[in-house]
Specification:
Layout: E1 3-14, H1 19-29, E2 32-42, E3 47-58, H2 64-77, E4 81-86, E5 92-97, H3 102-112, E6 119-125, H4 131-136, E7 141-143, H5 151-164, E8 169-172, H6 181-186, E9 191-196, H7 207-214, E10 218-225, E11 235-242, H8 249-272, E12 276-279, E13 282-285
Parallel strand pairs: 5-6, 5-8, 6-7, 8-9
Antiparallel strand pairs: 1-3, 1-4, 2-3, 9-10, 10-11, 12-13
Helix pairs in contact: 3-8, 7-8
Length: 287
């Protein structure tokens, strides 16, 4: 019996002749057919990046492990950093949220409607505000309140929850708490945050009121991987909208929420579809 399965290969390596030929040849010899392919040659660093999606008929003992073992020889030859992903394996995901629910609502809707190929296994919050909605969606809700005198304990409980749920991916959907360096390191490359793009100009409370007072003409949002450098991790996606002098601070906030929803949804979609390659402080996004 022949079973068809889809895979995505992500890789980066020093640029040199023969890389594409070797990759395509391996996939073809394994009985696969390319369904999507994108590549990027970075002249600034002389590095090569590629995302190859392919479908393969598997039989007998042939499977992901065998494909990885075979490709490892090519990866060693070209000094590649690489990963092979089974498209059918949806990453187990934890969403963290505080009191602003717009990003959570949007992600949950996309997930429930089958648009986001991931499995939401839990929602963590430092408040109870989102519990009724999350309960309605049938997802476990973990209330982990923040006490300024016991913040380290709360963060350890957060990380333990992620580990107990065997989550591979964490989304900070307007989770208004700073993660500890330990958490950032443990979740490196698998935790995405969203924030308005006024930073670092308008920090703290009511950023849209601050922006209105300064007469800004563009507002936006940034989705990035979380690092120990606050709000400065590798950027995955950004967007902006022009505004007018007639907009009130409240109108700016509503426009900002809509941008945040869209930007975070795209970043999450690209991550779970294995379209993002991390390279230091930068990302290569094959959207």
């Amino acid at each position: 019996m022949r079973i068809s399965k889809d895979y995505v290969l992500l890789l980066q390596c020093p640029d040199r002749a023969g890389i594409v030929a070797a990759i395509m040849g391996y996939i073809a010899n394994a009985g696969g057919s390319i369904t999507e392919s994108s590549q990027f040659n970075d002249a600034m660093t002389d590095r090569f990046y590629m995302r190859a999606a392919f479908r393969i008929n598997l039989s007998g003992s042939t499977g992901l492990a065998a494909l990885e073992a075979g490709f490892a020889k090519i990866a060693k030859q070209f000094d590649m950093s690489w990963a092979l992903h089974d498209v059918q394996a949806k990453p187990r995901t934890v969403i963290a949220v505080s009191r602003f629910g717009h990003c959570l609502y949007d992600l949950m809707h996309r997930w429930l409607s089958g648009v986001l190929p991931m499995e939401i296994v839990g929602v963590v919050s430092n408040h109870e505000d989102m519990r009724s909605f999350v309960d309605w969606a049938g997802v476990p809700y973990f209330h982990l309140p923040v006490d300024k005198t016991k913040k380290e304990e709360q963060q350890r409980a957060f990380l333990e929850t992620v580990e107990q749920l065997q989550a591979e991916f964490v989304v900070l959907a307007r989770y208004m708490q700073i993660l500890s360096p330990e958490m950032c390191e443990r979740l490196a490359g698998r935790c995405i945050n969203i924030h308005h793009s006024f930073l670092p100009s308008f920090k703290g409370a009511k950023p849209y009121h601050q922006a209105h007072a300064r007469g800004v003409k563009i507002i936006g949002a940034t989705a990035h991987y979380v690092t120990t450098a606050l709000d400065e991790g590798p950027i995955i996606e950004q967007d902006v909208v022009r505004i007018r002098h007639s907009h009130t601070p409240e109108a700016l906030a509503e426009i900002g929420k809509d941008i945040e929803r869209r930007v975070l949804a795209r970043a999450v979609q690209w991550h779970v579809q294995h379209r993002v390659i991390l390279n230091g402080n930068r990302t290569i996004v094959f959207d």
